[in-house]
Amino acid sequence: MLSRVEVHPGRYHDSVRLMQASKALQGVDGVSSALVAMATELNLSLLEDMGFDMDAVVGIGPNDLLLAIHAESEEAIAAAHRALEEALTPNVVRSGGLDAPDPKTIGTAAKINGADVALLSVPGEHAFVEAMEALQEGLHVMIFSDNVPIADEITLKKYGLEHGLLVMGPDCGTTIVNGLGLGFANAVQPGSVSMVGASGTGIQEMCALLDDAGVGIRHALGTGSHDLSEDVGASSTLQALEALDEDPGTELIVVISKPPAAPVAEKVRRVAAACATPVVITFMGETTLEEGAGEVLDMLGRPRPTYESWEAPPRSHRPGSVRGLFSGGTLRSEARHVAMPLLGEIGTREGDDGHTFIDYGDDEYTQGRAHPMIDQTVRVERLAAAGQDESVGVVLMDVVLGYGANANPAAELAPIVERVVSAGAAVVVSLCGTSGDPQGRDAQASVLNDAGASVYLSNAAAAIEAARLATTRTSS
Amino acid sequence: MSDLSQLLDTEPVVATAGTDMLAASIEQQGSVVERADWRPPHAGTEKALAVLFSDDRMRDANATAISRMLAVRPHLVDIKVARDVFPGMTDRTFLHAGPPLEWDRASGPMRGAIIGAMLYEGLADDPDAAAAKAAGGAIDLSPCHHHGAVGPMAGVTSPSMPVAVVTDAAGDGVAYSTLNEGLGKVLRYGAFAQEAIDRLHWMDEVLGPVLSAVLRSRGPIDLQSLIAQALQMGDDGHNRNRAVTSLFLREIGGALVDGADAPIDQRAEVFKFIDGNDHFMLNLVMAAGKLGSDAASGVPASSLVTVMARNGTDFGIRLSGTGDQWFVAPAPPVDGLYLGAFTQEDASPDIGDSTITETVGLGGLAMAAAPAIVGFVGGTAAGAVRRTLAMYEITMAEHPAYQIPMLEFRGTPVGIDAARVVRTGVLPQINTGIAGKVPGTGMVGAGLVEAPMECFVQGINALAATMN
């Protein structure tokens, strides 16, 4: 039997609380008796009666806290200490029912619910401080915000790497962890394919294509649109890739990015090649998301499906160029990549001659308003303008569904699509979504189709169709 | 530190800052989320904050500073005479509350207190002569805080005054304060009538020596223990010190009755004086606070607020990581309740070192402990609780000894972080007395005030400038 007497000078608790603490200690396995009390004369005599050594308490008084334990083992004494701290530490971060003010920083918010992931969408100039605080508190961080200086991104990612924390972003639109979507994310069936993507809509399209082919998703870790730049050097992508390689639930990994810096692409390929888990690399500019999804299906031994489409009844449309109105940067890149061989040069800025594919999710068009996946005002305007522009023969646009996106984009677009079609232009929609998405994917497709648009689940297929319509018409 | 396998093995628990849409979409998926009610940091602090958050130095420094603040064990060990404890104090040295100040800029109550102290020290025969001498440079003014000391309201400490000596039982620090004179026409509120001067003489002739004898007889008094108990009896340690003063009387009662080497009539006078002054312990609570504040100061890169103090003209703060530098702004008016026919018109701007209590997790920060004085916060106990709860956002720790029953014995918010103040816009809440603005008036009321944001903005920028 071990006997331990400790004095905590000046630590005060009221006697009711201390009696509760004594009771809690006596309930610890291996503790035969225990006393926690202020060292009043009464309690000191109690201590003596309990057979404790009184030498340890010479000179202490009623303002000092006394802890005495008879126990079978050191383990039991350690357990008693834990029980004591638990009994004396109020376990209330937000004191219940007392009208506590809302937390004002990410650190305080995270303490309230014990968060392990911080999701930040504060203005880019302010994201660094919140992100750093979250990292210092041991949270993984997803930074949805754009316009974060590259030096800050490098600092955050270096810090995250050193501390075993993943920094997703800045400019990270989509992440899915264990089925929970953060940012813009689609409702996917659970499975064993994981993704790392420096592109939100790239991840979304890949999710949609695989989900539609019956393949479930385990994780989709966004790393932010600058991660594969030379400056950042794929820091988060490589970190996520290595973690997914060790993840027992991941059977296959897909890496997705807009066209990366060449040396960085090499580095990613090297690390991917060293992974024990098979890795499919889908860099825009080299391949398409549909092709990437096809490779995944091949490796899983599943057939490549023909992705569903809702085609508009054949009708002649006016001659002219293709006007691409995108909300997803990667969808724009992919569409441009597959359409260029058919159309020739495609401009990427408003006012460029001929065919133009514009990303309205770019900062240039989002000043002072939400992303076009949420707020379609700018695209609705441009769609209407394209209808009135006699030089436009075909409009190609993406509509992205999922959590975080506009609740009913088709309802806003359909009347304008109708006007554009009756003005003589063709409309092709690339619909990015899964059958589980809250907007109802097939219903959205039908509304757009009824308005006169051809709707494709594959973005590449939509782009090819738009190019075909433009070339068919002009060549006839 | 967590690693990515922990992230990948469980469904994440998410906290958000920024657009509500992203939080709502997590809830739409049936998961819970905690939202920060985020707002941009105060203008002019963005760059400094980015510097301070660029690595762990500030965080680590803050952990060091707050642990030092919380590690002190303030014990009242003796009462001595000011000129004997402050090195370099001469007959013309007058300590005062708040940041540095010259006579020309001094407020009414500060001038009144200086005049009163000069009359008490025999440096002038009447108030006008004292004022003329002070204006002529006949005395040297120096902040209490530059001497390890604190003084409530005007805080004027002159060479003959008795001062409490508070030492650290767990370290080697020492802090000093004057002894509290009571309420009404008293020097610290700027009164210099004969009754105030007479009381000061009684304090150095009777009160100081008797208490010193009591302490010799019974030994040091553990102030932290008394304060901790008092918070559970309705004190905040700043505007309410009734419980802690009662506990103090019990502590010294035995020695006062039979143990101290002093005449019985003097011991009776001391008992009655302390018994009649609900704020007797304020000065000792302040000295205990100063001990913690000094222990926490001088930690490079720390944004811990070690001093908040006002001199009736300026409000000044110091940060642990910026050493002796003061960051000052005009002292704000106090929002309060007034005695008798006094109104806000009669009030001096905020004054006193008593805000040391707020810097160590008492006073306005511990308002939830003091339902008896909720009159100052709109009259509801819920308002008092709200005030304290709001302070956890800008503090570094919960005090291990100072606990609030109403909050399930949660520790008081302690260790104001200037970085969190400028990030959140939440200002430290201060409970305080109000002095009359005309010299000689004395106390006119009590109420609430917030530390000015400008001090914190300056402080954070200066701290960032130290980070190479």
Which fold name is given in CATH as the topology of the largest domain in chain A?
Rossmann fold
CATH top level of the largest domain in chain B?
Alpha Beta
- Provide the low-confidence segments of chain B as ranges: none
CATH topology of the largest domain in chain B: Enterococcus faecalis V583 fold
Radius of gyration of chain B: 23 Å
Largest sheet data of chain B: 5 strands, mixed
Q: CATH class of the largest domain in chain A, please?
A: Alpha Beta
CATH superfamily of the largest domain in chain A: Succinyl-CoA synthetase domains
Number of domains of chain B: 3
Strand content of chain B: 15-25%
Strand content of chain A: 15-25%
Tell me the quaternary state. Answer: heterodimer
The helix fraction of chain A, in percent, is: 40-55%
Number of separate helices of chain B: 16
If classified by CATH, what would the architecture of the largest domain in chain A be? 3-Layer(aba) Sandwich
N-to-C span of chain A: 99 Å
**How many extended strands of chain B?**
18
Give the CATH H-level superfamily of the largest domain in chain B.
Enterococcus faecalis V583 domain
Shape of chain B: globular
Span of the ends, CA to CA of chain B = 28 Å
Strand arrangement in the largest pleated sheet of chain A: 8-7-10-9-11-12
What does this structure look like?
The complex is a heterodimer of chains A (476) and B (468). In chain A, 40% of the residues lie in helices and 20% in strands. Chain A has 476 residues and is of the alpha/beta class. Chain A has a six-stranded mixed sheet, sandwiched between helices. In chain A, strands 13-18-17-16-14-15 form a six-stranded mixed sheet, with helices on both faces. In chain A, helix 7 crosses helix 10 and helix 11 packs parallel to helix 16. In chain B, the strands form six sheets. Chain B has a five-stranded mixed sheet. In chain B, strands 12-11-10-14 form a four-stranded antiparallel sheet, with helices on both faces. Chain B has a three-stranded antiparallel sheet with strand order 13-18-17. Chain B has three domains: 38 residues, no CATH class; 176 residues, Alpha-Beta Complex (v583 fold), CATH 3.90.1700; 213 residues, Alpha-Beta Complex (Enterococcus faecalis V583 fold). At the A-B interface, helix 4, strand 4, helix 5, helix 6 and strand 8 of A face helix 1, strand 1, helix 2, strand 2 and helix 3 of B. Strand 4 of chain A pairs parallel with strand 1 of chain B.
